[in-house]
Amino acid sequence: MLPDELTDQDPREHTVRAEEDLLTARHAVRASAVAAGFSIVDQTKIVTAASELVRNAYIHGGGGTMTIAVVRDRFGRSGISLSVRDGGPGIADVEQAMADGFSTGAGLGHGLGGTRRLVDEFTIDTTPGEGTTVTVVRWKP
Ligand SMILES: Nc1ncnc2c1ncn2[C@@H]1O[C@H](COP(=O)(O)OP(=O)(O)OP(=O)(O)O)[C@@H](O)[C@H]1O
Ligand SMILES: [Mg+2]
């Protein structure tokens, strides 16, 4: 289920243009997950998901932006939403890109598949030649 509303906390934007921005992005996600009351195990899952997505935006997408939002659904359940977008080449075959072991670079090709397994909601919106946006949500148990 997609979030119905944002909480009072404003979404936060993080630009990922350089190597050091990856660390800043990880720290920001950790802080939001702590503030939202996630367990340490869940914090780590959320940070790992964020890390893979911002690394993809940096390596494959030529840099991008991550938006962190604390969200709530209509039942009052809260969660964290991460949306990572870039203006890179896009992904021609999303199914292939999601498969474990597929990489067009030097990676293991486990980033996208692994990320999907760490979150409750996973959406890729990509257009070849225009860019990619991956949005994930992890709900609090
Ligand atoms: N933001 C993106 N823009 C363009 N292509 C992407 C993007 N994210 C992923 N891809 C494509 O999907 C493939 C699979 O991504 P995935 O994250 O699973 O593996 P990887 O980044 O190659 O390696 P790993 O993440 O294991 O280090 C990439 O090799 C790349 O071709
Ligand atoms: Mg990757």
UniProtKB/TrEMBL annotation:
<keyword id="KW-0808">Transferase</keyword>
<dbReference type="InterPro" id="IPR050267">
    <property type="entry name" value="Anti-sigma-factor_SerPK"/>
</dbReference>
<dbReference type="GO" id="GO:0004674">
    <property type="term" value="F:protein serine/threonine kinase activity"/>
</dbReference>
<keyword id="KW-0547">Nucleotide-binding</keyword>
<dbReference type="InterPro" id="IPR036890">
    <property type="entry name" value="HATPase_C_sf"/>
</dbReference>
<keyword id="KW-0723">Serine/threonine-protein kinase</keyword>
<keyword id="KW-0418">Kinase</keyword>
<keyword id="KW-0067">ATP-binding</keyword>
<protein>
    <submittedName>
        <fullName>ATP-binding protein</fullName>
    </submittedName>
</protein>
<dbReference type="InterPro" id="IPR003594">
    <property type="entry name" value="HATPase_dom"/>
</dbReference>
<feature type="domain" description="Histidine kinase/HSP90-like ATPase">
    <location>
        <begin position="42"/>
        <end position="136"/>
    </location>
</feature>
<dbReference type="Pfam" id="PF02518">
    <property type="entry name" value="HATPase_c"/>
</dbReference>
<dbReference type="GO" id="GO:0005524">
    <property type="term" value="F:ATP binding"/>
</dbReference>
